[in-house]
Write a sequence for this structure.
């Protein structure tokens, strides 16, 4: 029987952890968006990504969010929410731009992945990381081309008013801070209840049940029997998966090719549970439950379709 008081305490503590991990970066994203507007440098920043946004029929400000995603995906997505609320982006543009923002996030994962994969798996780990990066690039390319056909071309004018009085850095920051309050309050009204709900679901073991059911699907992938130990470990963490893979490779149980194949299969299977956990603290908290779910589902489906194709090609080649 569940101790209701302990459950409430655990949920509140976990909720606080999720809020502290998510809300500050959302606030940073909104503030940076307002600071960019205050300095009137939108045109200068967007010119670097303008070829991509122009081809995809996206507003140039989506390019600013894309660049910001290399630093903080949550801050970048918070910028998109602000742009939609102000009428700068349509709902369809925001969703497409949010899906594209996942590529910088994948690329910047080298900070966490390479220090684990290279020491444990050497060139095999590097090859696996490059495959993940390639999948992210293909996904982004598909999204850019999709925007070309799904969005109507529009002439965007980046207009801004030259101020007669030059503001200091502090004055610009104060102006941006004041302008950030309204959109941030709107985001927090959605994000905080969602994060509390996610914490409650985690503590009730819902995500663990889902993981157990999905893990059984591994038998449908043509991988060596020893590889299932890697997949089981991947449901815990990518570090655990890499550690098990390292032991199997060193012992000669699995070849480098079999390790990569197995890691890809595990990545596909764990994407659902990984996405569910990430959904609450990122997409739902920023975009709201409905739009957040739409973005998360589309992202997982598109990425997994590409991953399955890559998996099939490697099976044939190897």
């Amino acid at each position: 029987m569940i101790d209701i008081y302990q459950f409430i305490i655990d949920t509140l503590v976990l909720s606080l952890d999720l809020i502290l991990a998510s809300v500050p970066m959302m606030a940073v994203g909104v503030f940076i968006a307002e600071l960019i507007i205050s300095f009137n440098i939108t045109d200068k920043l967007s010119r670097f990504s303008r070829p991509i946004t122009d081809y995809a029929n996206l507003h140039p400000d989506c390019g600013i969010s894309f660049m910001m995603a290399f630093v903080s995906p949550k801050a970048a997505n918070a910028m998109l929410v602000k742009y939609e609320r102000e009428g700068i982006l349509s709902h369809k543009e925001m969703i497409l731009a949010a899906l594209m923002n996942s590529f910088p996030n994948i690329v910047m994962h080298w900070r966490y992945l390479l220090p684990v994969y290279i020491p444990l798996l050497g060139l095999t780990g590097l090859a696996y990381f490059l495959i993940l990066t390639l999948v992210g690039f293909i996904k982004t390319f598909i999204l850019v081309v999709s925007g070309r056909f799904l969005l109507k071309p529009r002439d965007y004018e980046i207009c801004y008013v030259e101020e007669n009085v030059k503001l200091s850095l502090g004055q610009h920051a104060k102006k941006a801070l004041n302008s950030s309050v309204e959109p941030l309050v709107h985001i927090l009204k959605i994000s905080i209840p969602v994060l509390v709900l996610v914490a409650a679901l985690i503590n009730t073991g819902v995500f663990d049940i889902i993981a157990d059911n999905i893990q059984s699907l591994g038998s449908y992938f043509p991988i060596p029997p020893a590889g299932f130990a890697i997949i089981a470990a991947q449901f815990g963490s990518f570090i655990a998966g890499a550690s098990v893979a390292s032991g199997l490779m060193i012992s000669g149980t699995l070849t480098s090719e079999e390790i990569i194949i197995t890691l890809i299969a595990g990545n596909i299977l764990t994407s659902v549970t990984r996405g569910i956990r990430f959904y609450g603290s990122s997409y739902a908290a920023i975009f709201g439950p409905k739009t957040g779910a739409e973005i998360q589902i589309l992202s997982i489906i598109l990425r997994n379709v590409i991953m399955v194709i890559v998996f099939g090609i490697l099976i044939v080649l190897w």
